[in-house]
Amino acid sequence: MRFASFFTSAFQRHPSYSKLILLCTLSGGGLLSYSESQSITGTPASSTNSDVPAKKKVVVLGTGWGGTSFLKDLDASLYDVQVVSPCNYFAFTPLLPSVTCGTVEARSIVEPVRNMVKKRKGEIKFWEAECLKIDHANKTVFCRSNIDSNLVGSGEFSLEYDYLVVAIGAQVNTFNTPGVKEHCYFLKEVEDAQKIRRAVIDCFEKAVLPSLTDEERRTNLHFVVVGGGPTGVEFAAELHDHFQEDLVNLYSSVKDFVKITVIQSGDHILNTFDERISLFAEDKFGRDGIEVQTGCRVVSVDDKNITMKTKSTGEISSVPHGMVIWSTGIATRPVVRDFMEQIGQGKRRVLATNEWLRVKGCDSVYAIGDCSSIDQRKIMDDISAIFEAADKDKSGTLTVAELKDVIDDIVVRYPQFDLYLKSKHILDLSTLWKDSEGNYREEIDIEGFKMALSHMDSQMKTLPATAQVASQQGEYLARCFNRMHQCEEHPEGPRRFKGSGRHTFLPFRYKHFGQFAPLGGEQAAAELPGDWVSMGHSTQWLWYSVYASKQVSWRTRMLVVSDWTRRFIFGRDSSRI
Amino acid sequence: MRFASFFTSAFQRHPSYSKLILLCTLSGGGLLSYSESQSITGTPASSTNSDVPAKKKVVVLGTGWGGTSFLKDLDASLYDVQVVSPCNYFAFTPLLPSVTCGTVEARSIVEPVRNMVKKRKGEIKFWEAECLKIDHANKTVFCRSNIDSNLVGSGEFSLEYDYLVVAIGAQVNTFNTPGVKEHCYFLKEVEDAQKIRRAVIDCFEKAVLPSLTDEERRTNLHFVVVGGGPTGVEFAAELHDHFQEDLVNLYSSVKDFVKITVIQSGDHILNTFDERISLFAEDKFGRDGIEVQTGCRVVSVDDKNITMKTKSTGEISSVPHGMVIWSTGIATRPVVRDFMEQIGQGKRRVLATNEWLRVKGCDSVYAIGDCSSIDQRKIMDDISAIFEAADKDKSGTLTVAELKDVIDDIVVRYPQFDLYLKSKHILDLSTLWKDSEGNYREEIDIEGFKMALSHMDSQMKTLPATAQVASQQGEYLARCFNRMHQCEEHPEGPRRFKGSGRHTFLPFRYKHFGQFAPLGGEQAAAELPGDWVSMGHSTQWLWYSVYASKQVSWRTRMLVVSDWTRRFIFGRDSSRI
């Protein structure tokens, strides 16, 4: 491999050496296909010389958190890697709400994919295109460039894969509410944030015009945020800051007409956070004059009004708006939906993978991030096999000691086991051996074992659709790909209770590092590991340092920090560009 | 006035005092109308209390170089000032070519108009709208907001004026070439530059796709710049730098297909510059591989091809392109054209003003910047009046001494007089008194005087349509407005040769501070005052310092300099957003 990589770098410097290398390294294994894949035509590597074992073709769909962290950690010299995404950049999405008001610039949170992949070992090919269809039977994806200018050449092409990594994300969920698609702003992509930024300024510029009545000014300056999750709440807070710190001085004649409303269907905003944070946020919004309407469901939106239903009373009310930002949840993209139909997952809500992130029903397809969900194997489905495996002496009963022999494998394979013990504060396994009257037993049979473990599956949790999860999944999958050959020979996973031997890899395990909710006015709330909760100004500074450190490149880190600095000195820019 | 401004600032802090102030300052002159103009409804000041002499209403159309420099220098406490522009920002247009490739960001070269005007003495009202019609007979402008979202309220309104300042700029001139509007990119507004930036990346992203033939790649990567003026040349240079410094590493598989062509109808590019600069630029472009086709006129453009005619041979040729940037000249905007029809200038190419920037045929309308041109009074039109005024003893003949008595007024009123003397290296006025055989005469009659001055009008020059001219015109006009009352009593201008007395103001005089042409590769050419020419790397550094110092605010100065720094460290961003 070192020989190959020497020539690889020589080739990169002097493309004219290409033929020479092809001649003198026919025995070079992977190098040949590598050289070919560098070729100007860029045709998929399927045309490699059949004498030489070609590298396995990995196609990655998407360059969001999942796709990018996979590519960053993948040893691309082991595979023929092609990436397809409609965006030629990675966006640091947690800062999108800041982009809506110009606290940071859109360009400061994006990093070109090509910048990132050119620093990788080996070569990664990138195509700016949308994946239209995954044809699993033929292991092919069909793609089309989304450039709509008059450039010549067909933008349609297909790529064959040996392994496919679906990291395509999700789309906005409108819950089929009438008018949402047409009249609402979303906050999912960088373009969305840019659109919102312009639209906010439009609302103000329109409202100050001499030809408007006060009622019209009031309508145009009513900003409605639907969804009280972290994104909606952060946007409302950003908008409030933008208004208080910048716009109030520039559009002072209409400052009394501005109103921000957050509509939440649940009883509290930030309801995935600790209750103390929800209450703190509601309290802060109350003081800031941001109206929070909880227990309300939006039934329709048109260009003038937003109509909602109060859940408790069933009352329908309609209010005029200048702008509605829809931030309520995510839905499966059509291409993933179509793929799910093909592989028999048509009835599911979201693409299911096993604990190794492999799509259920497809050996060669992996899915990470928001487009997929891990379907954790239930203990009760395997309870007999576990019992059998643990029952070494085949006595038909199990002692605590017998269970302890296989406990490590069980905990790795079924994390709910461990979660259950922790939730019940069980430190000693023999507690499980107690009967219903609380008497300790020496041995238990299969029925007793089932009883003891019966509540454990309730501890299974779906992972949230966050950047943190997607990013960890990408890293995990890259590690597996990097050691695929090695682990196939020396499996590192837990033993198979059904079947024999061990699983090739350890299953994916998510580590939660906490989450932030910036609330405006240089205050933030945070849920930190270990059930810690932190709120206030110091938390905002923690937020600044964490978000700066998490940037994908030194370039974006410098840009984001200098944007923050600029904002502190000069305020936000209100130019409508 | 100090009394008024105390209340003014009190009012700004506490809008609820408004009525109180109105009651207790009825004798406060200007303050009343000022308070009213602060009112929330923002209605034009025409509704002021008729007992109080209202301030004169000044309406400014446009916030480009002319309009902005006028507003920056105007003492807005003297007038009721309203500004109308479709852009709520001022853009530092000389850096637009840098924005096309991301050398500086679009936001770094714009400054919100409201930011600028809020720092001014007095209050300036700004409306983001387009002026649709100037109704000179009724001293009214009709405007419409160009916000196309669904916000409520009519965006149409009219403003009455006592003085109108037309600083509306010009639009792209396509010379009615078929297909240009539909298929070319322009470089006039900030949006244009942003579009080009995305389109360049599109060309590369499309060209690398696996489905294209090499011929298609070559077509998509053929960038054609029409117009070899400073803008076109700078764009070509920027694009070449962007390719060589950034894109070549990211799109290495297509690097051999990239071609940049500059099409110029004249014999040389940069033909408004000194010839040494033209040749230097052509030589540099030749070395860089940028093809320069001079003596070529574009006859049509379609989505695939650009068709041109070689002037010398009449030969028509057609080449495929990926992108055409049209940068050839400017044309009058429809609203100005319509206004010209109203005031009897329908047959002129461009709106004519006198030397005081007042539109010919309208007492109360001024025009500055690219939308207008100064119609310098000819000496020969006034030759008899000048002779008569100079001939103090009414002898029917003129001595050199008699001319010297009025020479200062002549030079101020007719700058071509001075230009002629300089161009002919005439240091002593008596040279003019020589007859055709070169013999010195004591006195000359009117015919001799006409003869002596007959070639002077050939020295009249139209000012170029540059930021420098517009900016100086704005400053000049603001100075006149600030001292209007004072100068009406004590005129400062030259004597009127026709009629009696003096002109109120000194006429506008343009000072040329030189011009730059950045040529890429950290080299620039410059024409400096005094016919100095400077070329090379040091000139580029001069360019950096001049452009940094000319920024309108510390904010944009910091942003532009940090953009340049970022580019030096990290290169330009190739994300398509």
From TrEMBL, chains A, B:
UniProt keyword Mitochondrion present: yes
Keywords, sorted A to Z: Calcium, FAD, Flavoprotein, Membrane, Mitochondrion, Mitochondrion inner membrane, NAD, Oxidoreductase, Peroxisome, Transit peptide
Organism superkingdom: Eukaryota
Record bears the keyword Oxidoreductase: yes
Its EC number(s): 1.6.5.9
Compartments (UniProt record): Mitochondrion inner membrane; Peroxisome
Pfam families: NDH2_C, Pyr_redox_2
PROSITE patterns on file: EF_HAND_1, EF_HAND_2
Cofactor(s) demanded: FAD
Reactions listed under catalytic activity: a quinone + NADH + H(+) = a quinol + NAD(+); a ubiquinone + NADH + H(+) = a ubiquinol + NAD(+)
Family of the protein in this entry: Belongs to the NADH dehydrogenase family.
Name of the protein described by the UniProt record: NADH:ubiquinone reductase (non-electrogenic)
Organism, as annotated: Stylosanthes scabra
